[in-house]
C-alpha cells in the first residue's frame, strides 16, 4: 500500500458514496465501477458479487481500537471513561455518516448484512461493558453492564441519525444518562430476574 | 371514507412500499403512480411534489395514542408503565418496519424530513418522560426524565433495525435497563450540572 489508495480502496470509496446517496438497492456494480473509474471486471475481480462488495464496505474499520484505548485507562473513574467512550462513538458515527447510512440500510434490507452490522456494534458494546465489569465495588452484573452499554450505544446510533451536528447541551445530556446508569448500577435497585444469556450478544438471535 | 382505501391512501401505501424496498432516492413519483394503479397526475393532485409525498408518508399515525393510554394509568407503578410503553414502542416499530425504514432513510438524506421524524419521536419521548415526572418521591428532574425517555426510545429504534424479530430474553433485558434507570433516577447520584433546556426537545437544535 503506497500513498495512493489501492484499486480495491477506490472501489470501496465509490461504493460507499453511491450506496449512501442513491441507496444500496438502486446502485449497480456497474455504477460503482463507473464512479471509481475502473472497468466493471475490476470490481468483480475484487468482489465476486454485489453482496460481497456490501459486506466489504460494512467491514471497514470502526471505532473499536480508539474505544479500547479509553476503556483501558483503569486509572480513571468509570463514569469519565464511559462518557468519553460515548462521546467518541457519537462523534465517529457523525464523521462517518455515509458508513452509518449504508450500515442502517443494509441492516434493514437483508439478514446477512444485519448480522455483520450487529457484530460491529456488538464489539463496541463489549468494550463499554468491560469498563463497568471491572469496576470495584459495583453491584453490576455482567448482564447489567451489557444492558447499560447496549442501551447507551444503540441510543447514540439514533442520535447520530437524527442530529448530524452536535446539539446545544448534548454533552451534559449524555453525562446525565451515564450518571443515571452508573447510579442505578451501583445501587441495590429492584432486580429484573435472570434473563437468558443469549441476549448477552447483540449478534445473537 | 368508506371500506375501500381512498385514492390518497392507495398512493401513500404504494409510496411507503417502494420507498422502503427500493429507496426514497431511487423511487420516482411515476413509479408510485404505477404501483398504486393511478395516473401520475393523480399523485400530483394529492401531493404537489415528491417531498410533500414523503412528508405525508412520515406523518402517518405513530404509536402516540397507545403510549398515552399506558402513561395515563397512574394507579400502576412507574416501572411497570415504562416497561410496557417500551415494549409497545418496540413492537410497533417492528410491525411498521417499512415506515421505520422510510423514516430513517428520510432523516439521513434531508433536513426537512429529519425535523419531521424528530418531531414524531419527540412526542413519544414526552409521553414517556411524563410517566417519570409524575412519580411521587422521585428525585428525577424533568431533564433526567427526558434523558431516560430519550435514551430508552432511541435505543429501541436501533434495536428494531438490528432485530426485526424479538430476541430470546429481550423482555428481561429491557426490564433491567428500565430498572437501572429508575434506580438511578431515585437515588442521589452524582449530578451532571445544569444542561441547556434546548436539549429538552428532540426536535430542537
UniProtKB/TrEMBL annotation, chains A, B:
<keyword id="KW-0804">Transcription</keyword>
<dbReference type="GO" id="GO:0000976">
    <property type="term" value="F:transcription cis-regulatory region binding"/>
</dbReference>
<feature type="domain" description="HTH tetR-type">
    <location>
        <begin position="5"/>
        <end position="65"/>
    </location>
</feature>
<dbReference type="GO" id="GO:0003700">
    <property type="term" value="F:DNA-binding transcription factor activity"/>
</dbReference>
<dbReference type="InterPro" id="IPR050109">
    <property type="entry name" value="HTH-type_TetR-like_transc_reg"/>
</dbReference>
<dbReference type="InterPro" id="IPR001647">
    <property type="entry name" value="HTH_TetR"/>
</dbReference>
<protein>
    <submittedName>
        <fullName>HTH-type transcriptional repressor KstR2</fullName>
    </submittedName>
</protein>
<dbReference type="Pfam" id="PF00440">
    <property type="entry name" value="TetR_N"/>
</dbReference>
<keyword id="KW-0805">Transcription regulation</keyword>
<keyword id="KW-0238">DNA-binding</keyword>
<dbReference type="InterPro" id="IPR009057">
    <property type="entry name" value="Homeodomain-like_sf"/>
</dbReference>
<feature type="DNA-binding region" description="H-T-H motif">
    <location>
        <begin position="28"/>
        <end position="47"/>
    </location>
</feature>
<dbReference type="InterPro" id="IPR023772">
    <property type="entry name" value="DNA-bd_HTH_TetR-type_CS"/>
</dbReference>
